[in-house]
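Researcher: Sequence of Olfactory receptor follows. Predict its structure.
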Amino acid sequence: MYIFLSMLAVTDLGLSIATMPTTLGIFFLNSREISLDACFAQLFFIHSLTFIESSVLLLMAFDRFVAISNPLRYASILTLPRITKMGLVFVLRGVAVIFPLPFLLKRFRYCQANVLSHSYCLHQEVMKMACSDIRVNSIYGLFVTVSTVTLDLLLILLSYVMILKTVLNIASHAESVRALSTCVSHLSAVLLFYISGIGLSIVQRFGNSSSPLLQILMGYIYLLVPPMMNPIVYSVKSKHLRARIIRAFKK
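Model: Prediction complete. Tokens:
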């Protein structure tokens, strides 16, 4: 569990670092411009890390399922080499599916108002500023979303269905509650990540008549709130993490 939690922390840190140059440039340096190549590089890292975080949440759901359904075999199933292989596969998946996007965007001609709604670059927003036919990008973007984030979410839901099925077969009510309580932190992280992502997608696709302030707010919530809240969620529920944090501050 702590290895997966470390993966989540590294991914959240990467997302924050990827958005930091342009965000800090606006608030502290009053710089509101970004070159096209830098924009493509930023959206590559943001989307790759977003898909990797979705994969990490899926791995954490699998971790909870194994811990509840096969507690005696937990250490033998989730060995360090197996965890490493699963992590590498999902990292490669996140990078591979996003790798073509900067090249697909670079072939476009941009003649519209090059003004972003957020302080960072996203594929769906940069794509709309092109004066060329963007059907290939739209289809590929939809395919990538369905084959990664949507698939991960469905598998997470399936994992929790199987967890509930296992918990309902436990005779003791106290043991059932204790088993479900180990999933609270992960469920909170899942809700923070997917609800903010779905909200941003809805605003971008159907919110043309909505206030620009709403789009800006949803953009910040999507990339900044989950990385900020995940450490709080896990430290509140985990006594070991809470004790280590308190000890670190006392030093």
